[in-house]
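Researcher: Sequence recovery benchmark, item below. Answer with residues only.
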């Protein structure tokens, strides 16, 4: 099963001519993430990230709900969610 984890975009930058990258914070742990699939995302918005790619935007309420669900399932403690 694949799991996407919500995080908040803290930085957006262009790598090269076409690749949009950024930093996304997952409860304070910041990772580099490809933002190419969410070209209209802005700093401060939440995205769902899977294996280093932001797949979609979500509002903060939905992101928090998903984080609570993952926490109840113990999914936030697994190494897969820390990538």
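Model:
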């Amino acid at each position: 099963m694949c799991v996407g984890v919500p995080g908040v975009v803290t930085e957006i930058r262009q790598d090269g001519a076409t690749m949009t990258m950024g930093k996304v914070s997952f409860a304070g742990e910041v990772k580099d993430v490809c933002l190419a699939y969410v070209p209209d995302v802005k700093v401060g918005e939440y995205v769902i990230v899977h294996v280093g790619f932001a797949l979609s935007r979500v509002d903060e309420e939905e992101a928090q709900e998903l984080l609570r669900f993952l926490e109840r399932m113990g999914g936030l403690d697994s190494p897969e969610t820390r990538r």
